[in-house]
Amino acid sequence: MVTNDRIIALRELMHRENIDACIVTSSDSHGSEYPSTYWHLREYLSGFNGSAGTLVVTRNHAGLWTDSRYYIQAEAQLRGSCIELHKEGLPGVPDPIEYLTYLLPSGAVVGVDGLTVSAADFRRWDSTLSMFGIKLRGDIGLVETYMTGIGEMSALSVWQHDVKFTGMSRKEKLALVRKKMEAQHVTRYIIASLDDVAWLTNLRGNEVEYNPVFYAYMIIDTDEATLYINPNKLTEADGAALMADGIKISLYESFLRDIKLTPTDAKVFYDPKRLNSLCAAGIPKRCVRIEGDSMILMLKGCKSQHEIEQIKNAHVRDGVALVKFARWIKENVKKERITELDASEKLTNLRKEGENYISDSFENIIAWGPNAAIVHYRPTIESNTVIEPRGLLLVDSGAQYYDGTTDVTRTFAMGEVTDIESLHYTLVLKAHIALATAIFPEGTKGIQLDSLARSCMWRYGVDYGHGTGHGVGFCLNVHEGPQSISKKGIDVAMEAGMLTSDEPGVYVEGSHGIRTESLVVCREAKQTGFGRFFAFETVTMMPIDKEPIKVNLLTDAEIKWVDEYHAKVYSALSGFLEGADLEWLKEACAPLCRE
Question: Is the pTM of this model over 0.70?
Answer without folding.
Answer: yes
